[in-house]
Amino acid sequence: MDSLKSIAQSFYKFFKTGRFESAIDDISMLTMEQSYECQRIYHSLREADGDKPFGYKVGCTSAAIRKQFGFAEPIYGRLLTPGLINERTPLKADQFYSLAIEPEFVIVLKRELTTKNPSDDELRDAIAEVRPGIELHNYVYHYPQPTRQELICSNGIHAGQIIGTNASTARDVHWEMEGVAVFRNGKLVASGVAADIMEGPLNSLRFLISHLNAQGETLKAGEMVIPGSATALIPVGRGDEITCRFTHIGEVTAKFE
Fold this sequence. Notes:
26% of the residues lie in helices and 29% in strands. It is built from six helices and twelve strands. Strands 1, 2, 3, 4, 5, 6, 9 and 10 form an eight-stranded mixed beta sheet that branches. Strands 8-7-11-12 form a four-stranded antiparallel beta sheet, with no helix packed on it. A hairpin with a 4-residue loop joins strand 11 and strand 12 (251-255).
């Protein structure tokens, strides 16, 4: 569909250049199926440009985020290079657009997940490690009202994923009560627990598996999944230092020059 390609190109151009030219008057006219098709076209444009997929993100999984955006259901998108960022990598706030962050559990898979509705034990057994992470967002909506359609088409306003150095096993994580606190320049600005993420990140993982199965796709060994945040998005500016501190899986810090 030519119009979906034009919409996808508008989000691709914004990601690459920071310039947005609307390709549709009312993006809320798209169905969910059309929105995800637009997202797939966006991914293909990124991949044609040399970017490589390395996993998936799930968004709008907590009450805090849903209230912030006004949405009722989760969405998912792709993680792509060059958005794979190791902790301590120098970053500039102005390389992003209206930068905002979320704390994330970074789940790394050790085997393919093909079961449609895996148990908690099956999911834990499929996880190689869990790392603390910080998701980066270009926190910009281009249409008058934020919609799930725009969020899906834009790949969840995802701009990058910082991966912490500390690695824990799935058995080290309390998948309901693992806490996270977010500090900006040493001051606590947000906190939450794993249960805030769809009553636990494993449920978020199941949501993703179900939607991928419907597309004839699966999660594969080596892929990373970020299941969503227990807090709302937090704005970040030049000079800010962000630390996300988890109860058991460690902490991750990023400084933005």
